[in-house]
TrEMBL record:
GO terms assigned for molecular function: protein serine/threonine phosphatase activity
PANTHER family membership: PROTEIN PHOSPHATASE
InterPro entries: PP2C (IPR015655), PPM-type-like_dom_sf (IPR036457), PPM-type_phosphatase-like_dom (IPR001932)
Species, as recorded: Gossypium barbadense
Top-rank lineage group of the source organism: Eukaryota
Stated name of the protein: PPM-type phosphatase domain-containing protein
SUPFAM superfamilies: PP2C-like (SSF81606)
Keywords assigned: Membrane, Transmembrane, Transmembrane helix
Transmembrane regions listed in the UniProt entry: 117-143
All residue ranges annotated as the PPM-type phosphatase domain in the record: 40-360
A Pfam family this chain is assigned to: PP2C
Phylogenetic classification of the source organism: Eukaryota, Viridiplantae, Streptophyta, Embryophyta, Tracheophyta
Length: 373
């Protein structure tokens, strides 16, 4: 998961000072501190209990027009939401609920109008009833060879594509420095289009989240697509800078339904009973509803900003925002990131766990000596 070193754009060199260390138990960690001492970061990535690693991350630094530019990104392949968590169940017991949803979705077609969702919903209910009957008579194992062929939904290709292209595309945007927010809002959906085009002749239907933080001078831009998350510690308080894109979010559900889709309960709330997030890169079959338009927050870094934490949902599923800030404490970023991933694993996370911690170092004002007469 190394990033390219020494890549250049017309705006100057992009420098990546990542030195990965494969530590105990497969943890990959590293860190760096800026020359002026104002910024340091660390990262930790761990496969955890999963059979495969579908988290990717990217960190790039550059100096443009005399100011430091840093980009941090976490990309989590959406396999974890569709089949990853139940893959062992599928292999062992045969027909999974996810197979039912995937097959019924394929039958109804991926270019759907509202009335088709009605037929789709009925089909899901009928097939689910058959599954219950099969399971009760222990006949479901007959379908075992049939499961992996139709329910495969790999996420690592999409996440890896974002790692390789998203920030490169962003830095090529003509208004990257002058209007960073606009550049992000245009680059992310276009990168999604590019990825889907690159997958046109494959049989995959990959997807990925993206939680990114772009620092241009003292201005921070946090963009989110999916359910990876970014928080900041300000004066000791944990403040979320992104809101998870879940299908049951009132505004997201309304957007999906206005586009002709449905949100269904299938262990958790899912778009069409399939995907447990409402925005993502990729996911071609659900693209009409699962968009890659980022929600963006921008902040000006001041002396109360202490640290920034970006992580995949493997951490946030078991570590609340306040705990993340508390656990990171005053640790050096690399140690803090490792500590957070270890805490998530200890608390029972069943997902890949990837975390980036960025610490802001502010100059302390010199004490004023009182005058003595």
């Amino acid at each position: 998961m190394m990033v390219d070193s020494g890549a250049t754009t017309n705006q100057g060199p992009i420098v990546d000072m990542i030195s990965e260390k494969d530590g105990d138990g497969g943890y990959v960690t590293g860190g760096w501190k800026s020359e002026d001492g104002k910024l340091s970061y660390g990262y930790s990535s761990f496969r955890g209990k999963r059979a495969t690693m579908e988290d990717f991350y990217d960190i790039k630094t550059s100096k443009i027009n005399g100011q430091m530019v840093c980009m941090f990104g976490i990309f989590d392949g959406t396999t974890s939401d569709v089949i990853g968590e139940d893959l062992s169940l599928k292999c062992g017991t045969g027909l999974s609920p996810y197979l039912v949803f995937n097959l019924s979705y394929l039958i109804s077609g991926w270019s759907l109008k509202s009335f088709r969702w009605l037929a789709y919903s009925i089909l899901v209910a009928v097939l689910w009833s058959f599954v219950m009957v099969f399971e009760s008579f222990a006949l479901v194992s007959v379908f075992s060879p049939f499961v992996l062929e139709f329910s495969w939904h790999g996420g690592s290709h999409a996440a890896e594509y974002l790692k390789q292209h998203l920030f490169e595309n962003l830095m090529k945007h003509p208004k990257f420095i002058t209007d960073t927010k606009l550049a992000i809002s245009e680059t992310y959906p276009q990168t999604d289009v590019d990825f889907l085009d690159s997958e046109r002749n494959t049989y995959r239907d990959d997807g990925s989240t993206a939680s990114t933080a772009v620092l241009v001078g003292n201005h921070l831009y946090v963009a989110n697509v999916g359910d990876s998350r970014t928080i900041i510690s300000k004066a000791g308080e944990a403040i979320p800078l992104s809101e998870d894109h879940k299908p049951n979010r009132t505004d997201e559900r309304k957007r999906i339904e206005n586009a002709g889709g449905v949100v269904m309960w299938a262990g958790t709330w899912r778009v069409g009973g399939v995907l447990a997030m409402s925005r993502a890169f990729g996911d071609r079959m659900l693209k009409q509803f699962v968009v890659a338009e980022p929600e963006i927050q921008d902040k000006e870094i001041d002396e109360e900003f202490e640290l920034l934490v970006l992580a995949s949902d493997g951490l946030w599923d078991v570590v609340p925002n306040e705990d993340a800030v508390s656990l990171a404490g005053a640790e050096e970023p690399e140690k803090a990131a490792r500590k957070l991933t270890e805490a998530a694993f200890t608390r029972g996370s069943a997902d890949n766990i990837t975390c980036i911690v960025v610490r802001f170092h502010h100059e302390k004002a010199a004490p004023v000596n009182p005058k003595h007469e």
